């Protein structure tokens, strides 16, 4: 078995390498390239390429905002130092940069991009906007519960950390409480 070998259990993730190679080969053989539509060909227009600028702007903007929120709870000097908090200036700099980059992304997608990576005009539809907000709320509640549910037994019923881990491992939600093991 791979986990008992000298490679160790992390090597079990290498199964994804051949699967990925096979998937790439199949994609190049099965999926056709996008072709021009008849109206584009008649008008002599070239099909717009992938919106790399929009992709990079969205990725960098979201990264800055998320990293700003993670810096709030981080501490100086590892786990024993003082927590940065909202008064830490890099948090506000990252947040401002992220919002500015995301605003640039919105402007670029609405005004410049021929084939936007995210068509923001879809949010003009009330139904689409409500469906998107509800999807995010439900996902937030579901995935947030994976982190919070294992923390309830020690606080509500005063169980020991080992007992909580045994209960959550048995229920299948044990991934969120590995930090409780002493």
Our estimate of the beta-strand percent is under 5%
Net shape: extended
Can you count the beta strands? 0
Q: Count the DSSP helices.
A: 7
Q: Main beta sheet: strand number and arrangement?
A: none
Mean pLDDT: 79
Q: Kindly report how far apart the N and C termini lie.
A: 29 Å
Structural class by SSE content: mainly alpha
Query: In terms of per-residue confidence, which ranges show pLDDT below 50 for 5 or more consecutive residues?
Result: 176-182
Radius of gyration: 24 Å
Number of domains: 2
Q: Share of helix among residues?
A: 55-70%
Order of helices and strands: HHHHHHH
Give a nutshell description of this structure:
The protein has 182 residues and is mainly alpha-helical. Helix content is 58%, strand content 0%.
């Amino acid at each position: 078995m791979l986990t008992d070998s000298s490679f160790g259990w992390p090597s079990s993730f290498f199964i994804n390498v051949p699967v990925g190679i096979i998937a790439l080969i199949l994609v190049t053989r099965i999926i056709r390239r996008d072709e021009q539509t008849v109206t584009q060909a008649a008008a002599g227009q070239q099909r717009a390429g992938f919106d790399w600028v929009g992709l990079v702007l969205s990725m960098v903007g979201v990264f800055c905002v998320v990293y700003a929120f993670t810096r709030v709870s981080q501490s100086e000097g590892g786990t024993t130092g003082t927590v940065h908090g909202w008064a830490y200036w890099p948090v506000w700099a990252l947040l401002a940069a992220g919002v500015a980059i995301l605003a640039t992304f919105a402007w670029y997608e609405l005004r410049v991009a021929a084939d936007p990576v995210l068509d923001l005009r879809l949010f003009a539809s009330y139904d689409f906007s409500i469906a998107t907000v509800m999807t995010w709320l439900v996902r937030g509640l579901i995935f947030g519960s994976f982190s919070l549910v294992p923390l309830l037994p020690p606080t509500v019923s005063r169980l020991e950390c080992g007992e909580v881990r045994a209960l959550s491992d048995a229920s299948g939600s044990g991934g969120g409480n590995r930090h409780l093991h002493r």
